[in-house]
Amino acid sequence: MTDLDQLTQSLARNLKHWRAERGFTLDALAARAGVSRGMIIQIEQARTNPSVGTTVKIADALGVSITTLLDYEQGPQVRIVAADEAVRLWSTEAGSHTTLLVGAEAPGPFELWDWRLMPGDRSASDPHPPGTVELLQVRTGTLTLVVEGVEHRVPAGSAATFEAKAPHAYRNDGEEPVEMTMSVIIPLAR
């Protein structure tokens, strides 16, 4: 099975799941997303690979991220996405492109951070409120991500996501600086 076939199958399975989860009929989802009923049927039957625009419209109508619609499987608490596993969604002959590195579902505030950890440095964090999710992408070096005492190596070019309700830390065990981009999604206060 090719990557495109796997993506098409995942999209079909996830669309059916989230449409049922939301209680939407084919017609209701089509109206909310602004796409035809026939397109949704074709996607759910894995007979078409829709455009990025159509996929985004459907994700928005379902109230989920595009990552959730394209996810091959629900992962464990910590999920590492290797550089060659990221999904390129758009590209041009001139070399422009967008790559979906990693995503997660969570309501509430969203923070984007730029990090630099020098060799031997460490930053520990207490648990965040339940529902808080952190996503990160390592640009240089190799990050040691520690979640609930379990170490995960995240090399340059890779991305990871985890539920930050557990104690966690970022560590640079290497000899070069670790540079990474991190997003934090915080649940709405209730």
Describe the protein.
By secondary structure, the chain is of the alpha+beta class. It is built from 5 helices and 11 strands. Strands 1-9-6-11-4 form a 5-stranded antiparallel sheet, with no helix packed on it. A 4-stranded antiparallel sheet has the order 5-10-7-8, with no helix packed on it. The chain has a two-stranded antiparallel sheet with strand order 2-3. It starts with a helix and ends in a 5-residue tail after the last strand.
Give a short overview.
This protein is an alpha+beta fold and 190 residues long.
Q: Which stretches of 5+ consecutive residues score pLDDT under 50?
A: none
Count of DSSP H/I helices: 5
Amino-to-carboxy terminus distance: 44 Å
- The share of residues in extended strands comes to 25-35%
Question: What characteristic shape results from the CA principal axes?
Answer: globular
Helix content, binned percent: 25-40%
Rg from alpha-carbon coordinates: 18 Å
Tell me about the biggest sheet?
5 strands, antiparallel
Question: What order do the helices and strands follow?
Answer: HHHHHEEEEEEEEEEE
Helix/strand-derived category reads alpha+beta
How many strands appear in the DSSP assignment? 11
Give the averaged pLDDT, no decimals: 84
